[in-house]
Amino acid sequence: MSGPDDIVLRAEHVSVSYASRRPVRAVRDVSLELRRGEVLGIVGESGCGKSTLAYALTRLLRPPAELTGGTVTFCGKDGLRVELTSLAGEQLRQFRSTGMAMVFQSAMNALNPVTSIGQQFRDIFRAHDTGMDRGAMDARAGDLLEMVGIDRGRLRSFAHELSGGMRQRVIIAMALALDPEVVIMDEPTTALDVVVQQEILDEIDRLREALGFSIIFITHDLSLLLEVSDTLAVMYAGQVVEYAPTEQVAAAPAHPYTLGLLRSFPDMRGQRRELRGIPGSPPDLGERIVGCAFAARCGYVVEACRTASPVLQQLPGELRAGLPVAGWDAACHLHNLDLCPGGPPAELSGTATARPDRTPAVADGLVAGGATAGDSSGGLR
């Protein structure tokens, strides 16, 4: 395991609410650590709080969203420690010049349509007081474009003259313009075809290796994260329900929701199997949630799930799937022997084969709340 000195970003007990007649608790008590050079993947259904969490980490929340609890600490390579929740105004703007950058959701359409690509780069350098003259700005911008595989002559182009993949590469280049240590990418390959998507992912991985920045990669596509991330955080109803090295989660998940996500897409390397959506719908985050938020959709529900909220904690036991348990957390009563004396079923115990084909309760249509396995509403979109 890596030591504490390689942590570049630490979020502790972050909570975000949207103010309204019924406040919506979009992010609920989330804690994460991003290590230097790591790709941390955050996955979950639409509306689970992924993007809201990203905005909270970067201090980009706008009303009616409000950070209601928690801290976010940035630890720079130079030893500088910054508590982001305490920054405001000019201090926050200066931090963003070198600390963190974000590639926003639908970034492919985020370029200014009436300004050249070169001018948009110059706007970035001027806004952050880099002290460069126009020649130096254009040279730096050209280098950045070439870094992502685009000819520097495209600095004279406008957004409508670029393909979707090229626009996405330009946005990534702009995110890297000020050499950030952390880049948060919110659905960076959405709306791209699979060939261009793979090219972008390869480009991101190459840049990370060359420049040494860390990535928080947010998507609803778990199959994609299994390929690109080092650590995986699975979010459901505003909370992280499983948090572990990606390889371990892919081999044998610990939470029923993660298992449901794994079963919702085909295994391109394994045997053919039936795909299943997750029955039911996510809970209303404007209502008080009693017990486990996933209980109404879970085929493994026990009595404690309906009354007590599970807490994200390290799983018991010395080994899971032949690997050390350290660093593997899940929020599920099935792993609490006091509440579930029989322990988790084989497919959630870390000893089953990868992506098992059958969940007894789901396969037989005996899903809690009266839904059947044929009801795929609310599955991974």
N-to-C SSE string, H for helix and E for strand: EEEHEEHEHHHEHEHEEHHEEEEH
Assembly context of the chains: single chain
What composes the largest sheet? 8 strands, mixed
Strand content: 15-25%
The number of helical elements comes to: 10
Query: How large, in whole angstroms, is the Cα Rg?
Result: 22 Å
Key structural traits:
381 residues, alpha/beta, Rossmann fold, eight-stranded mixed beta sheet, four-stranded antiparallel beta sheet, 10 helices, 14 strands, 25% helix, globular, disordered C terminus
Blueprint of the fold:
Blueprint: E1 7-18, E2 24-35, E3 39-43, H1 50-57, E4 65-75, E5 81-83, H2 89-98, E6 100-103, H3 117-127, H4 134-147, H5 164-175, E7 182-186, H6 194-211, E8 214-219, H7 222-228, E9 231-236, E10 239-245, H8 246-251, H9 256-262, E11 313-314, E12 319-320, E13 323-324, E14 329-330, H10 360-363
Parallel strand pairs: 3-8, 3-9, 6-7, 7-8
Antiparallel strand pairs: 1-2, 1-4, 4-5, 9-10, 10-14, 11-14, 12-13
Helix pairs in contact: 3-4, 4-5, 5-6
